[in-house]
Amino acid sequence: MWRPLFLLQLTQLLLGLASGQIQPRIVGGTTTTLSAVGGFVVNLRYDGTFYCGGSLVTSSHVVTAAHCLKGYQASRITVQGGVSKLSQSGVVRRVARYFIPNGFSSSSLNWDVGVIRLQSALTGSGITTIPLCQVQWNPGNYMRVSGWGTTRYGNSSPSNQLRTVRIQLIRKKVCQRAYQGRDTLTASTFCARTGGKDSCSGDSGGGVIFKNQLCGIVSWGLGCANAQYPGVYTSVHRVRSFILRSIKK
């Protein structure tokens, strides 16, 4: 059964529970800094508790995963930018509202994209924005994912230090065969993996970067860095029109 990649993170942090199916971390990644990966990387907090990632695409808009937003009160979500460590104060902005596509499905995670409009612009030292993807990619290309997912299985605490990993794109048919009989891959997704490396719980909503553009969104997977089951990501190419419409609202 699929698991959205923030689920264990949020459950552990808010309820103190653990799951045996997800290994909650950027697996096989390395520690990094915001200046090294890009000042567009932000984190989402619910009642002050970190639970998802996001990408700043304008000074007032963040792209994340729909499953990081659906069912949550906008007034209780804040966005923090300008930090390499969660313990740093950075720049924090409240959420004015968020947008989720009508086609989003909580069961299949089809159209797993959300756009947050902040109450005021998120600006400051080291904070930048990232353009939406306009480049094409091919199986075998490498993309980069960064986030603060927890670093050890069963640990309820996220990584204080930002971490990053390179993942390799694979053919959709290969991914479909891997999940056959377990889950369905929708048209809005692509898959990637690298031996022993992957995004995982707590990294949901974070950006997948290719040629310095936002080309994907961390969505879901079965386990993490599991050789049998690749990570599944929302394609920004597929949801670009929704993102642009939401920014204009």
Indicate the topology.
Blueprint: E1 3-4, H1 7-15, E2 30-31, H2 34-37, E3 41-46, E4 49-58, E5 61-64, E6 77-81, E7 91-99, E8 114-118, E9 142-147, E10 163-170, H3 172-179, E11 189-193, E12 207-210, E13 213-221, E14 231-235, H4 236-248
Antiparallel strand pairs: 1-13, 2-10, 3-4, 3-6, 4-5, 5-8, 6-7, 7-8, 9-10, 9-12, 10-11, 11-14, 12-13, 13-14
Can you offer a commentary on this structure?
This protein has 249 residues and is an alpha+beta fold. The protein has 2 domains: 39-129 and 241-248, Thrombin, subunit H, CATH 2.40.10.10; 130-237, Trypsin-like serine proteases (Thrombin, subunit H). 14% of the residues lie in helices and 32% in strands. It contains 4 helices and 14 strands. The protein has a 6-stranded antiparallel beta barrel. A hairpin with a 2-residue loop joins strand 4 (49-58) and strand 5. The termini are far apart. Residues 6-27 have low confidence and may be disordered. Belongs to the peptidase S1 family.
Question: What labels would you give this structure?
Answer:
249 residues; Thrombin, subunit H; alpha+beta; 2 domains; 6-stranded antiparallel beta barrel
CATH T-level fold name of the largest domain:
Thrombin, subunit H
Order of helix and strand elements from N to C terminus: EHEHEEEEEEEEHEEEEH
Shape: globular
Largest beta-sheet details = 6 strands, antiparallel, barrel
Structural class, from secondary structure content?
alpha+beta
What CATH architecture label of the largest domain applies?
A: Beta Barrel
CA-CA gap between termini: 36 Å
Look at the structure and give the CATH class of the largest domain: Mainly Beta
Adjacency order of strands in the biggest sheet: 9-10-11-14-13-12
Number of helices in the DSSP assignment: 4
Tell me the name of the CATH homologous superfamily of the largest domain.
Answer: Trypsin-like serine proteases
Q: Radius of gyration from the CA trace?
A: 16 Å
**Count of domain modules:** 2
Strand percentage, roughly?
25-35%
Subcellular location: Secreted, Extracellular space
Signal peptide: 1-20
Family: Belongs to the peptidase S1 family.
Enzyme class: hydrolase
